[in-house]
Amino acid sequence: MDTLLRGARVIDPGTTFDGDADVLVRDGRIAALGPDLAVPDGADVLDVAGLVVGPGFVDLHSHVHSIAGQRLQAMDGVTTALDLEAGLMPVAAAYANAAREGRPLNYGFSASWGTARAQAHLGIEPDARFETGLALLGEPQWQRSSSPRELAHWLSLLERELGDGALGIGILLGYAPRTDPAELTAVARLAASAGAPTYTHVRELVEADPTTPVDGSEELMIAAAETGAAMHHCHVNSTSRRHVDRVLAMLDRSRASGSRMTVEAYPYGAGSTGVGAYFLAPERLGAWGIGPSSIVMVETGERIENETRLREIRASDPGAECIVEFLDERDPADREVLHQALAFPDAIVASDAMPLMWGGGVLDTRDWPLPPGAGTHPRTSGTFAKSLRTMVRETGTWTWLEAFRRCSFLPARVLDEVAPGAAAKGHLGIGADADLVVLDPDRISDAATYLDATRPSVGVQHLLVGGVPVVRDGDLLTDAYPGKALRGEPR
């Protein structure tokens, strides 16, 4: 059935169009855009006067691999949710699993540097589960530098994954920050030769660890300059923290010199990861001005009391999901740090959405509303709505056109070289994928909190994925699974 969205303020960051118009959707694509379009016979007409229509948000950094998690992201305006920082392995199995189970949103994965190293160093067979990889991040034999043989082994695994449709290479370098910098250069060369981006959680900054083999953010820029690879700096807000001025200045110089550097941020002062992560060791916390009490366990809500308790949990369940408070969002100076990261020219919004934990494991349910007691980080539910609320509605830092550039257009362009299908996303050109968000510009807001992290955002009135409604009149449609795979095609 054709769908006609009638009378909205339409924003297309691909052409910079911002004005009143109708949008006609046919066969999953944008068929026409303009004023007073004729209504095709039998079309579903949505009166969206007073609302804003734009391309659905493309999230480059989502670790939710469940229907439940994707539904929360749908209510936040996301139409394509990609796990590119960590990735999954084998990527063929990850795509097959998602297709078999069905997904409300489009999906895709990078080749997992972390899992490839685990196979080369530890002989562990991958199972395409994010939670398995999370549990390995504190393993000393995984964290060490690779031998020449091991390096060759895991590079070959990454090359195979690119051939199987991975959208680039995800590199969790911050979890193995003492490794030889030559390893990252080798990965960047592989990515450049395949025409695929890298997505990196950088190792620690020199301010946090003066003994680091190389400053984490500077290392990324050096590798991009030396190899010509397209390199994406993940969550610059959480890895740079109060040193974001220096990091963003380096990024600016790197891009001005011709390096293919992109960067992302999210609007929260707390992160989330497995409690066994290298940088959460008790002896490492002081480098960032935090302590054990800055760590809260997601499933139980326990705030870690002291170093002894932290060591106990890290030893017994290193993959347990936790929240790490690295900035105080009540402090104006810390809020300004988050604002700087989002305001940086061409910074992309990306959520770093985390799995939903419930009843001793990952919540994977088709029930909606979600059952009570599920835990996650609020960025899973509210990253995009919070970014719009703070950067457009409250501070006026972005126009609505700029907001859609950062949430839809720019993230899709990161993928253009590796994934031909990305060309149809992030804009409203004729023939583009009909991945659309219709939002109330006066109401759009996050609702999730650290204590109630699964509260859906408000203000997304309609969401179409490939022309199929997933959200209608503000309500999630529980029978909608139109998500399709976005796959890489390396050269």
Automatic annotation (TrEMBL):
Which keywords are on file for this protein? Hydrolase
Q: Which GO terms describe its molecular function?
A: hydrolase activity, acting on carbon-nitrogen (but not peptide) bonds, in linear amides
Determine if Hydrolase is one of this entry's keywords: yes
Q: Which InterPro entries match?
A: Amidohydro_3, D-aminoacylase_insert_dom_sf, Metal-dep_hydrolase_composite, Metal_Hydrolase, Metallo-dep_Hydrolases_sf
All copies of domain Amidohydrolase, residue ranges: 45-471
Domain of life assignment: Bacteria
Question: Protein name, please?
Answer: Dihydroorotase-like cyclic amidohydrolase
